[in-house]
Design a protein that fits this description.
homodimer; 356 residues; alpha+beta; 10 strands; DNA-binding
Chain lengths: 356, 356
DNA sequence: ATTAGCACTCCATTGCAATGAGTGCTAATA
DNA sequence: TATTAGCACTCATTGCAATGGAGTGCTAAT
């Protein structure tokens, strides 16, 4: 028994209907719904087969059928193929966002936040968006400035224009000349260097050259180390978590509580981001159905993600989280177009807007 | 008819019992619960009076009574007075936090985040905490550094050690001397100046002195303006939003959805923060019961807040959000001790850790 | 002033029957 | 041989009445 054209059509009809209603769908509905002109009895037989094949599930005897993860998966894969050929014309939602992106010259951060919100409102699903994560970690610039008698301000800039500041306490006031020397020492030795390559020997060397100011070097190196650490936990914005209450299958206390925690402790979402960034399927769009997602608390959800890239190596993830019966069609095409917008728009004015 | 000692005791007993069970409490329960040795009939009469006075409410005939906002208010006010006299000894929870505070020399930001989490776990309520808001806005330091041929890095430091960076695009490479001149120009004119006092005339003057580099001055001033704007929307961390699901009276879809949105769009919580910061009652602890809170979506909650102060003028708010029947006693004393810890601990190492 | 006692109210629970959507199977049909 | 009509059966849902219990308010007795 294999999945012939007719079975496929029936499966699709079941899924379509279930996406709309959220209720198990019965044979009679399909019999009328489709243009196959088959009686409900025939449909029943086919459904029985589809269930045996694992594409649909019967919640209990005498109920209709609902799609299984496997069923959804087939449906989505099929759709992705069709989409590929379609002209990728911007939907209404995307056009709105496009407008927003172009209007603003705000910081990337603000745009992303706004975008998450907009997506959430437009799709009625929860959304998340990770700020672009820098991979190349070359030091670009280090500077010490005197704030007052007892404090130095460190400014560290890493490739990708990630900037970090830190205050360093000093025992005694440094004169301008010493400060200049230290700045030159740091920059000539460290600029252009990937942070990973800074080793103990190098630090020892710097300290020696700094003489009595070795302590300051140590503090600066701590600050540099903090940059790496800081980069690891990516900033993630979420929006529309409340949307889960619109879908009864997610809205019971147990599940809702778990999901809300997941959105609040954005830490958990990080796994998702990492997963999308590594495992690239080519299109940049990924669909996780039910248990497929790397985040266990989302086992009753489906997640659609898009990976965007601003400048070389600055990658981030947009994710839409909804019930299994989400409107994959709309979500996928929205994300696809949005991703394209981000990929292209920001690449043009190279860097200009990318201070985080 | 006034509120005599006995009525007061009965009211207290009703509230205590309701705090525990969350169910309307009847006369028989009180009769047995208290050491007043009164029959249920007597209690009934008293309860009837209390209801007439507005301290308790009967959800429907033949149900027990639950406290009204007015009832809670009396209870809380009374407790606050008693607390005042009590030796303010650290509870178990606070001791844990104290330890945490001392162990870490992380950034304030990280400590606050952690603290919110810890409070949420320990109290089983939702928590929020606002990062210290700076009031004095004096410019302390401005610096332009050359990143590369086409980009300048602006570093702006405001009193309270709030640091902000920005990239400025330039048409052509600036030589060291010009850069130095610009830096001196900016610092001599602006340092020590409250941001609000920078006016158009001053800017015009600066631009004139900068000559062909007037454009850069404009960009820097934009960055300074952004600092103010940035300061306005305070950073607020939340934790334990999921705790609302532990209280049936908050966990129905409608209410939960609203509350979750409130926590996610931290913007709304800002009103609360502003309210606490202005209206100081002296103790630094404030209790909003039900409709008393400035945030409408929290009308079915009670909110207890504490205002802490790090350095002079750096004030923030800690808030605990739970059901009306929250354990006011525990919450208030926890917050009180915590506030004291923050007020004192951080004042010692003046500034050292306050880079945001 | 307090309390015992009683009638009354109202909610929540339970059991039961009716309903209806849906299935699986069988026998008839094209 | 594939399709369909028909029928018996299952099971969740709904409505309804009965029941019990928690609690009140009132009155009369202490």
């Amino acid at each position: 028994m294999d999945l012939d054209e007719r079975k496929r059509k029936i499966l699709q009809a079941i899924i379509r209907n279930y996406l709309e209603t959220g209720e198990p769908v019965g044979s009679r509905t399909i019999s009328k719904y489709t243009d196959l002109n088959l009686s409900s009895a025939t449909i029943r037989n086919e459904m029985s087969d589809l269930e045996e094949l694992g594409y649909i599930i019967q919640p209990h005897t005498s109920a209709g059928r609902i799609p299984s993860d496997k069923g959804y998966r087939l449906y989505v894969d099929q759709m992705m193929l069709e989409k590929e050929e379609q002209l990728n014309q911007a939907t209404q939602e995307v056009r709105e966002m496009q407008k927003m992106l172009l209007d603003r010259e705000d910081k990337v951060e603000a745009v992303l936040k706004q975008m998450a919100k907009m997506l959430a409102v437009n799709t009625n699903y929860a959304t998340m968006i990770s700020a672009p994560q820098v991979r190349g970690n070359k030091l670009k610039f280090i500077q010490l400035s005197r704030m007052d008698a007892r404090q130095l301000l460190t400014t560290i800039v890493v490739e990708g224009n990630v900037i970090k500041n830190d205050m360093i306490a000093v025992d005694q006031m440094l004169d301008d000349e010493t400060l200049l020397k230290l700045n030159i020492l740091l920059n000539t030795n460290l600029n252009g260097l990937p942070i990973e390559e800074i080793n103990l020997a190098m630090i020892a060397n710097l300290k020696q050259q700094a003489g009595i100011h070795a302590g300051i070097i140590a503090d600066v190196m701590d600050a540099v180390a903090a940059v790496i650490k800081d980069n690891e936990n990516v900033v993630i914005y979420t929006s529309g978590a409340n949307n889960i209450f619109k879908y009864p299958e997610l809205a019971d206390n147990q599940r809702a509580s778990e999901l809300i925690t997941t959105f609040e402790e954005k830490q958990l979402l990080n796994e998702l981001v990492q997963d999308t960034l590594t495992d690239e399927s080519g299109t940049g769009i990924q669909v996780y159905i039910g248990n497929e997602t790397p985040v266990k608390t989302m086992k009753d959800c489906s997640v659609v993600t898009a990976t965007y890239e601003l400048e070389e190596g600055m990658k981030g993830t947009i994710g839409i989280i909804g019930p299994r019966r989400m409107d994959y069609d709309k979500v996928i095409s929205t994300l696809k177009t949005l991703k394209n917008q981000l990929d292209t728009i920001y690449k043009k004015d190279d860097g200009e807007n990318s201070g985080i």
